[in-house]
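During the practical work, I worked with a single protein chain and the tokens that describe its fold, as given directly below.
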Amino acid sequence: MSLITICIPVLNEEENILNTYNAIDEYFKINLKDFQYEIIFTDNNSSDKTQEIITNLAKGNQKIKYIRFNKNIGYDLSILEGYRNSSGEAAIVIDCDLQDPVNILKTFIDEWKNGHDLVYGVRKKRKENFLFTLLRKAYYKIMNESSQNKFPEGAGGFRLIDKTIINRILNNNNIYPYVRGLTFSLAARPKGVDYDRTNRKLGQSKLGYYNTFTYGINALIEQTRIFVRFFARIGIILLFFSVLFSLVNVYYNFEFFTLFQNIILLLLMLIVLMCIIISEYVMRIYLQIKKENKIIYEKKINLK
């Protein structure tokens, strides 16, 4: 029997853990009898009863693995730790809120058995406002035009990857990984599966607008060179106008700083933004060299 690893990152999901486990366990018993499974919960230092519930669930049940970090290391790093500790021939990431339906797992596994090393869910229906939809479409357009990989617009973290991809991911030591991009870049035969994503029934989402924004910026930094190219062009434009203003000012003896104070203010804002992005790149390089963001496990259950 093939073993499938189910990776579930959690943060304060006390209301959803048992429902998620029962749904997965029942689905394998009924629809995937020819497969064994293990579930790895990676806990980003939850402050509710998440730790207690999973610990009790794992007692006497070797199918349940538990990793608790000493701090919130972020969604993607916790997924990577799930991959690193997996024993399955394939691994599936699914969120604990069951917005991504369990009944898609058989389709994922069937496509994997047909030779696809990456099978990812493509959300066809999403309940969100018009502005957010427009921004998301614009974001994916920018991402796909700036990256060597092409990312399907509706693809999220819900996906199956083969052990061959996992083995290659293990060599990635990036402290700010973008796992979706990594899996796409390493896949030889990816396949998308359409599905409808449901609303969260219990608990509160930990993502929010701010985390969505920072997650998107991290993906652009890790997967594209858009900021480098953008600020290189801005730098050339600034240099051109500064030389032009100086020459015209000398020739005509005009006070351009009075006439164009709004333009200069805008340019200063762009320079500040440029410095912020450059500082982010420098900080990442520095931390990557020093390897200071080490993952420290607070607890492991049913794992070596």
